[in-house]
Structure prediction request, 84 residues.
Amino acid sequence: MAPVDYLTDVSLPVATYERTHRCAVCGRTSSDREEVESELPPVTLCPGHSAQYRSDWLMLGWCNGHYAEALKRCPVHNCVVEPL
Ligand SMILES: [Zn+2]
Ligand SMILES: [Zn+2]
Prediction:
C-alpha cells in the first residue's frame, strides 16, 4: 500500500486543497513542494524549511503516514521519526 500524506486532504476542491498544504516540520501553510529521493510523494515545506532541506541542514523522515523532521519525536504519534 502506498503511503498517504494525511496532512494533504486530496478530497477537497483545488483552492482549498492548496491552502491546506502545510510545512512538514513547522506546520506553516505553504505551497512549496520538494521532491524526495524515494518512492514517497513530494513533501510540503515552508520557504525557510525548504531552503534548509536543499542545503542539507534539514533531514526529513517518514512517520505514520506523514513527513516530519527526522530523529525528532512526533507530537501526534509520540514516536521518533525514522529518517528517509
Ligand atoms: Zn516550516
Ligand atoms: Zn507522526
Q: What stands out?
A: The pocket of zinc ion (ligand 1) is lined by residues 23, 25-26, 28, 45-46, 48-49 (CB under 6 Å). The longest strand covers residues 60-62. The radius of gyration is 12 Å. Confidence is low (pLDDT under 50) at residues 12-19.
